[in-house]
Structure formats: structure tokens, C-alpha cells
Amino acid sequence: MHRSWENTAIGTAWVMAGELRLETNSTRRADALRARVEVACGDLVRHRERGETDPRAWHRERRRRHRAWSRRRRGRSSVT
After folding, report:
1. Which among 31, 37, 43, 61 is most buried, taking Cβ atoms within 10 Å?
2. Which string of DSSP letters, residue by residue, matches 32-80?
3. For the chain, domain boundaries
């Protein structure tokens, strides 16, 4: 966190049927967020899997998905 900031986002939580996914941009933040969620939720959650993604690959995939989504919204379904 930057000294002049009052707060900062640690990560993102995705809540789906039977699943809670936490995403961060660093291993340190992932560890901190997981610990906070485990303390807050207790036995309601359990850790099942951990993965890491190359940031460049993640951004390429995000751009690809956004382009596909934009085409669908405009009525075109072809993927290039």
C-alpha cells in the first residue's frame, strides 16, 4: 500500500455456486487474503487448489475474451 493511500485492494473474490475464488497480483497478497478469509469464514470454507498464471498470458487471454464478448454484443459470433 502506498503511504498516502487510505486503503488498497488486496485482490478480487469470485463467488459462484459452491465455489469461492480469490485472485491477487502477488503471492504475498494471496497469502494475506487467504488468511483473512479463513479467519472470517472458519469451517465454512476450505482450501482446495492454488495456481499461478503468467501476467502476460493472463492479459492476452483477457483481451481475447473481451474481443469475443464485444463481437457477440454487436451480433457477430465469429472468433478470429
Report:
1. 37
2. HHHHHHHHHHGGG----------HHHHHHHHHHHHHHHHHHHTT-----
3. 1-49, 54-80
Nearest to 48 by CA among 22, 9, 28: 22
Ramachandran angles phi, psi of 25, nearest 5° = -105, 15
Tens of pLDDT, residues 16-43: 888 999 989 888 999 999 999 999 999 9
- The grid cell for 13 is 473474490
Question: What would the pLDDT profile of 41-62 be if each residue is shown by its tens digit?
Answer: 999 998 888 888 888 888 898 8
As a whole-number percent, the residues of the chain with pLDDT over 90 amount to 31
